[in-house]
Amino acid sequence: MEPKVYHGTLNLALGNKNGMVVITDSRATVINGQGEIIRREDDHQKLFPVTKDVVISIAGYNNASVPEAAREFVAPAAGIIMKYIESLKRYRHTPDYKEVISGLIFLLNFHLTSVTNINDWSNLPVNPGNYLFQMLIIGRQEEQRLISKVTLKSEIRKSLNGISFINSNVYETKQLQVGSKFIFETAGLDYIARDILQHPEKYSSFPVIKSYASKQKNNNAENITLSEMVDIAKTIMKITSDVEQGVGGPHQLAIFDEKGMKKEIGSFRSPSGPTIEFNLFVGFSAFGGTAIASESWAGPAGIVTNVPALFIASTFENSSVNIDRHYFFGSIFKKCKIILKDNVFSFNKYNTVEECELILGKRVNMNAANIRSLISDFKWQKIHKEKQ
Question: Collapsing DSSP states into helix, strand and coil, what is residue 231?
């Protein structure tokens, strides 16, 4: 993993017969579009109790730089997770451990695919390998106590019509069952943490690590108490922060014992979530007189929707395509009628238009910058403006 993906975040989970502990730092590194560090902030939530039995910690995917025209599609992972938790409360639904994992994998892949492709088709520098995300999921599933690690990764793919796009998917999953033996899992910038836990004798100047080393050597780590695990986790966080500037700020902590989960997370500013709900279509194709993206239209699954859509690397041929409130990046239009009734849309200049007609409604402001670009950036076969 390239360190610049995480800029420091450390997630650490420990467990044995006495319980489980998970800890994160609170520091986030803010970067510009060129990947340069602007500042570091110590007030970012990275540990989220989803239910009374499940907590997750995250590393990676903060506020990405995206074009202003597409800001509403982008939110940091923390904002997406908080919106997910709020939805669960609103619908009074309590998911089990497996449902939390599958639900968050879907949501985060969805949004990560969106932001990487928006950047790519807006001609911003994009290295798909740098769009990585990890989360630890700690909790109970029936009588089992589990620690899982999920890594999402973006890769370049090709659609059926040969257009390249970036797709985020599950790169790796690991699941550990917590029993009597002492186990651990890490995420983010974790090389120091793993070295301490695997070779504690190298860090004997720290009393709690020296004690841990002794118990490991004597095969007695299963008797490490919960309070000792908390001390080990905090010491590892301190050692890491002394070496890596990207790790720091207040600890966020969750502790599982036989009575349930206790959390020490503190108060953090509420992360921004997605400002709109939208459908994502990557490599979508429509041919032969289909009406696409009208004010109320049937999506690929036949579901009628009026939710805005983000089309990436898609192909439209001999179709009527309404672009109001919708967004198109890197798509191909052949012999289509492109219909616009208002000024709210995003039609990226890296779309391809061949033998298409542009139909502008009465409300369209011909002097608006996005309308002038729409007209000048493409070779339209015909442009028709409805009369007032």
Answer: helix
